[in-house]
Description:
A: alpha/beta, Rossmann fold, about 20% helix, about 25% strand, B: Mth169, Chain: A
Amino acid sequence: MKKKKIISIIIFPGSNCDRDLMVAVEKNLGIKPNLVWHQTRNIEKTDIIFLPGGFSYGDYLRAGIIATKSPAISEVIRLSKKGIPIIGICNGFQILTECNLLEGALLKNSNQLFKCEDVFLKVTSKNKFTSSYKKGEIISFPIAHSQGNFFVNDQKLKELEDNEQIIFKYTSKEGSEDKNFNPNGSKNNIAGIVNKKKNVLGLMPHPERAIENFSSRDGKGFFKSIYEML
Amino acid sequence: MIFRVFVNFKPGILDPEAEAIMQTIKNMGNKSIEKIIKGKFFDIYVDDNKDYFKEIEKISENLLSNPVIENFKIIKKN
Lengths: 230, 78
C-alpha cells in the first residue's frame, strides 16, 4: 500500500453489510477501515466514508430516514461539503437520498418483490469512482433490496443527465437499457448516481459482494478506483 | 391537544402496495374500484400551553414525510 489513508465505515443498528465491506476494503486496499458507531459526534480525520447496506433502524418510517438523524450523519454531511468522498451502498444510498446529499428517492420495487440476484450494469459515466472501468463497460454486481426503485422528477432527471451524474444503469449483458432488464422499476434504469460536486456516490448494487472467486469479481475494479482516488 | 399528520404519496408516484390492495379487493369480487390511495397518519400529543402547529409542520417536513415523493396534511384534534 503506497499511502496511509483513513477509511471509515459508519455502522447503524440494523446495518448488515458492514462486515462484507470491511473485508472487501481490507483485501482490495490493504487498509483496515475504522468502524464508526452511528452515535459518534466527531469524525476528525477520514479520507473516505462508506455507508453500508442493511436495514438501519429496521427501515422504520422510510428506509434510511431514521439514520439521517444520527450524530454520525451530521458529520458525514459536514465532511461531504469539504469534498471528502462519501459512498452509500444499498441502504447507504437510501440514507444519502433521505439526507439530501443525493437527488431523488428510493421507492418500493415496482414488481413488489425483494430482488436478490446478479444484475448487469453499464458504467455510464467515468469519474473518480469508476476510473478503473471503461465508459460503457458492462459489469456484474449482485443486488438485494426491496426498495431500490429510484425516482426523480423529470427536471431533476435532466439535470442528472446533463451533469453526467448517472454512474450505473441496469442493462442486459449486451448493454441494452430496455425496461426488461430493470429489476426494480428505477427511472431510466438508474442504479447509481453522484451529487453535483461528484464526491458523493450512491448505488443499490453491492460491489463488496463481487470480489471473490465464487461470484462476479467486477467489484475489484470499484475498489481499485477508490485505491487510485485516495 | 392532538395533531394528526397525514402522509401520502404525491400524484404520479407508483405505490405497489396500494396496487396490490386494489387487486385483492377486485379478486374479492368488487369490480367497481378504480383506484386506491394508501397513506399513513401520526397522532402527535402535545400539551395545551401553546400552539405547536409550526413545530409539527417542521417535523412533518423533516422527518414524517419525504418532500420528494410525499405530501402531508396536518389537522388539529381536541
